Amino acid sequence: MDIIVYFKEQNQQLYGFIEGEIDTFTAPKLRDELENIKFNENRDIVLDLSKVHYMDSTGLGIFVAFYKRALREAGQVKLVGLSIRLRRLFEITGLSDLMDIETDKEVEIN
Amino acid sequence: MKQLETQYKKMLMDYITYQSEKNLYIAQNFTRQLIQKNVAPEDVVGIHKNVMKEILPQTSNEEQHAYDFLIEVMVQYGMTHRAHQSLLQKQAEYDMEMKIAADIQKTLLKTIVPQLANVDIGMVSIPIRKMNGDYVHFLAEDKKYVCVAVTDVIGKGVPAALCMSMVKYGLETLEYTYKEPPYVLEIINRVIEKSVDDSMFVSMFYGYFDIQKSTFSYASAGHEPALHYSAKNNQFSTLEAKGLLLGVLPDTKYAFNEVTIEENDIIIIMTDGVTEFRFHDDFNARDLITTIIEKNKFLSAQQLCTLLYEQIEQMQDFKLSDDFTVVIIKK
Amino acid sequence: MFKTSVEIMTEWDIVEARQIGRQEAKMLGFNTVDQARITTAISELARNIYLYAEVGTIEIERIETEGEKRIIITAVDKGPGIQDVRKVMQDGYSTSGGLGAGIPGVNRLMDSMVIQSNVGEGTTIKTEKWLR
């Protein structure tokens, strides 16, 4: 079980693609990758979670931490491609009211 | 070192003469002694080299050089090996400290399930690792009320345990506000938001069961919804309550909800360790829970909790991936 | 007292420092095993300079007074410095790589060690071994 994170910059947006399972073991890697992202006013951050098959609460914590930093540093973050299961996790925790979340929509990028 | 060299010389000479298994066994025991005395590998080679020169004086210069070469190699090898040994020892110390900390946590965060005349309460809380990330807090007065807070700290290990202690003391200092679930969550949220790092949060379900009025009021901070079994209708309903996790934003508000509780009704409050089935993608854990409860509704609250744990553990092949906590209240 | 100094700029300088260290140790009367230890210690310190400080020197001192024989190795660099000297002395720190790697190992090979470091200015590591 591992996790892959990679980024593509296009049309003033930084796309982050996350693939794999986010749990206690893979979470530190994801956290490091997200911590390296620099926010800037002219660029939106879009994180694609369509290839995340599993996420536990540790993973959730990482996204919240990322969101809180975005809030402080005036960055724009959007999560896309969430499976129903993942979406449910964000709903239960009340985070879906706070964060910009889109379900099951593949990000088109060439 | 000189004494070891003498011993080694005798053993080696014996072996060269007899080549018996007994000689080798003695050598093995000698090695134990070397390790015990913390003799470095390069010293062993050094001993061997010196002894060889004594017992076979005709050894060539080339052979002596070869030993010197081996000594060089062994210095580096031994250095790394010792660092490794010392790390292992350190780890053992940490493990010991962790165990002590876990014991302290267990004592500090021990939950006492209230025994009430008209209400039957049961609880199971099983940590997956040494430290439990779930915590249940009760406050009760017989024939009047019972409050219950079921919490799950997101984040693991020591920081989570410390955060949990904060939650506990927050709940203990509520005084007269315990009857207002949204207010309780707002207070605890402020406590946590101020003092916890960005990636640590707490989910909490807080319920207030007014025994005289037979009402159960509740609020949820990002917690797994509770279940309500109505005996009269033989039906389950979800106690949905929207609300953000504790510790994310400072001034979060929580919604007030209330249901009426009738004779033989059951309330089931759990953490996501109960409903999260990592390797059963399409499996609906809630269906399983409601089926088990419905079939065994005549059992006591404690028996029901234990049964749920056993069945769910079995379903997951005895490999739960999260702390497991369930509280059941039966009227 | 006899003192030699080698400036460490390339890997060949590490070899040279080793060579001088071994000669001095031999002259003092250290046995082959201790010679190997002293040389390995020099090698580790020199490698740290080479990898992380770019420029620095290794000083080798032979002390021979009556009743006392010892070798002193001093590694001086003007590199980035070490933030937390105590941490560098702990095993496990070296596994993360970086400046100060292998210091606990060197400490074990030698008899005493003193580290002085200022962040942004450089590091001086002085280590000794006595002949018994």
Characterise the protein shown here.
- The complex is a heterotrimer of chains A (110), B (331) and C (132).
- Chain A has one domain: STAS domain (Transcription Regulator spoIIAA, 2-Layer Sandwich).
- In chain A, 31% of the residues lie in helices and 37% in strands.
- Chain A contains 3 helices and 5 strands.
- Chain A has a 5-stranded mixed β-sheet.
- In chain A, strand 4, helix 3 and strand 5 form a beta-alpha-beta unit.
- The N and C termini of chain A lie far apart (27 Å).
- Chain B is α+β, with helices and mostly antiparallel strands and 331 residues long.
- Helices cover 47% and strands 21% of the residues of chain B.
- Chain C is α+β, with helices and mostly antiparallel strands and 132 residues long.
- Chain C is globular.
- The chains are: A alpha/beta (110), B alpha+beta (331), C alpha+beta (132).
- Chains in contact: A-B, B-C.
- At the A-B interface, helix 2 of A face loops of B.
State the fourth-level CATH superfamily of chain C. Answer: Histidine kinase-like ATPase, C-terminal domain
Helix content of chain C: 25-40%
Q: Helix- and strand-based class of chain B?
A: alpha+beta
Structural class of chain C: alpha+beta
Helix-strand topology string of chain C: EHHEEHHEE
Features:
heterotrimer; A: 110 residues; alpha/beta; Transcription Regulator spoIIAA; 3 helices; 5 strands; B: alpha+beta; Methyltransferase, Methionine Synthase (B12-binding Domains), Chain A, domain 1; Phosphatase 2c, domain 1; five-stranded antiparallel sheet; 10 strands
Summarize the structure.
Chain B has 331 residues and is an alpha+beta fold. Chain B has nine helices and ten strands. In chain B, strand 4 and strand 5 form a beta hairpin.
How is this fold's topology laid out?
The complex is a heterotrimer of chains A (110), B (331) and C (132).
Chain A: E1 3-10, E2 13-22, H1 27-35, E3 44-55, H2 57-72, E4 76-82, H3 84-92, E5 100-103
Parallel strand pairs in A: 2-3, 3-4, 4-5
Antiparallel strand pairs in A: 1-2
Chain B: H1 2-18, H2 21-36, H3 41-55, H4 61-108, E1 120-126, E2 134-141, E3 145-154, H5 157-172, H6 181-195, E4 201-210, E5 215-221, E6 226-230, E7 235-239, E8 257-260, E9 266-270, H7 272-275, H8 285-295, H9 301-315, E10 324-330
Antiparallel strand pairs in B: 1-10, 2-3, 3-4, 4-5, 5-8, 6-7, 6-9, 9-10
Helix pairs in contact in B: 1-2, 1-3, 3-4, 5-6, 8-9
Chain C: E1 2-8, H1 11-28, H2 32-53, E2 56-65, E3 68-77, H3 85-88, H4 103-109, E4 112-118, E5 122-130
Antiparallel strand pairs in C: 1-2, 2-3, 3-5, 4-5
Helix pairs in contact in C: 1-2, 2-4
